[in-house]
Design a protein that fits this description.
- The complex is a heterodimer of chains A (193) and B (469).
- By secondary structure, chain A is of the alpha/beta class.
- Chain A has a single domain (6-192), classed as Alpha-Beta Barrel (Aconitase, domain 4), CATH 3.20.19.10.
- Chain A has 8 helices and 7 strands; from the N terminus they run βααβαβαβαβββααα.
- Chain A is globular and about 60 Å long.
- The mean pLDDT of chain A is 97.
- Chain B is globular, with a radius of gyration of 22 Å.
- Chain B has 469 residues and is α/β, with parallel strands linked by helices.
- Classes of the chains: A alpha/beta (193), B alpha/beta (469).
- At the A-B interface, helix 4, helix 7 and helix 8 of A face helix 2, helix 3, helix 5, strand 8 and helix 11 of B.
Amino acid sequence: MAQFTQLTSRVIPLANRNIDTDQIIPARFLKVTDKSGLGEALFSDWRYNTNGSPNTNFVLNQADHQGAQILLAGGNFGCGSSREHAPWALTSWGIRAVISTSFADIFRNNALKNGLLPVIVDVETHKSLFDLVEELPTAELTIDLDSQSVTLPDGATMSFPIDNFSKNCLLSGIDQLGYILSHEARISAYEAA
Amino acid sequence: MPLKPRTLFEKIWANHLVVQESDSPAVLYVDLHLIHEVTSPQAFTGLRNRGLRMRRPERTLATMDHSTPTTPLGLPMADTQAEAQLQQLADNCAEFGIELFDMDSPQRGIVHIIGPELGLTQPGMTIVCGDSHTSTHGAFGALAFGIGTSEVEHVLASQCLLQEKPKTFEVRVEGTLERGVSAKDIILALIAKISISGGTGHVFEFTGSAMRALSLEERMTVCNMSIEGGARAGMVAPDDSTFQYLAGRDSVPKGAAWEQALAAWRELPSDPGAAYDQSITIEADELVPMITFGTNPGMGIPITDAIPDPAQTSNADVRHNLEKALAYMGLKPGQALLGQPVDVVFIGSCTNGRISDLRLAADVLRGRKVAESVRMLVVPGSQAVKQQAESEGLQHVFRAAGAEWRESGCSMCIAMNGDQIEPGQYAVSTSNRNFEGRQGKGGRTFLASPLTAAAAAVRGQISDVRTML
């Protein structure tokens, strides 16, 4: 799994609440047998016009946001289906962190297994971040996982919660299967009981 | 000292806890793992890349459902990418020794329909699948939830999952449902009340007299859409209805083992006085047929109500969301949904693709015709449901009315197999999601019960089925 320590990047604002995984990557793109290339399909139905040309009104297609690695999204991000193609599509496009007021449970679990950091902020902070990006679309934020903080261009910082286990996995880039398998003896004992 | 009263969820959790270290999630044992073609290929690749074998292949079962054609053509398919994905599943199952219900199997069907049908889904179990509607199996008093593909790999390799312990949420449904109101209306009413994130971080337990009165198939409809309320799992305590449903099915214990299992299952219901982190009560007597008007399952109203006006909402986020939904749906605030013309009606899915759902739809269609302007698809949830329906002659009812009678699969619920609605079309669907484009790019979905869907098919517009019974 990709390590996550610190990230400084511009921000892609997508204010809609309840962005579901069918919007992040529509089901017709799920007929693949690997993880590659899914960034092309990220937000496909919002990103492309019916004739396949880019929808220039959509934030992902705007010059100010090219190469940005932080997505600032409305609450309950990632609701709906369990498809891990959603974090795969986001990371394949280049997103490494999503800031929102809340995440759907399965999406959050999937994100954490793919080096994609879900950053939960309170409603006021959330609004102030949208205001910041609206005022200055190229504004950069710094997310530091070790100190669990987001730093604004003016130096102001805000903290975010994350459980220690997920944090340590992300900081060292190790995935969780190793932890489960390290308990092989306990699993065998459970099965024998 | 007497034990602290425990909920159904807490008992199953404790029974499956393998390791719980401080500062780490629990390692939870998985009794039954279900897989399908869409969310498993990368998990097997991961297993191969690590040089790992499957820990317990006999605890995993595979079926083909999401991208399978519902026309009787079988293979080869028109969609070569989908066909390659199905072949990959077959190859993976052969390599790792997993039982697979392939395209030719009479036991094939939607993964959440066949588990219960075969008696694989049993009370007290932990059941997972790379599919969010795994919550369906909770109807039997199992702890069942959807997982991502990385977690599918974890289960293949270790038969375990790392999980944070969720909170509990009692949904008490008391009273009696009016004729024409069904299980689907209970769950749509709940989600309309608590929103699609109301259950986040929780497991629902559905209790109360109205839940006890539901058949197991109806309980599955309710539990199925728990995820649409944000809860990964929904459960109903097992009771005599559960045991009657299971008795004699292929995979349930037989003889003395059955009696032993029954004794254990009777210990599962929540203890009197057990506490939940949250609770809500729904009065079944007050429910009417529900329908969604927007682009998530929480945007639902009684079918006789008008569409809410975003201007009446003080929360700017919610207002914006409603406005966006109505713009996508091409609907106006204050508009009645009754009388809204529809183009497509879909009966099927893991929510409402069981035999009792098909019987309800057939009851409305018998002696009537699907409106000229409407395309109606009836897609049984499994080949066994199809066979049962045909033994009852239901296919004749559907065909005589002008509906298409199909092979089993997920079909138009997820629109991966070519069954889809066209841009701008309106569908009344018995499935579980009305997200933008869910049933086909640009398509617009109204979620409702099989009764309400069948009524819309006959009238060509959204109608109150209670006037047709």
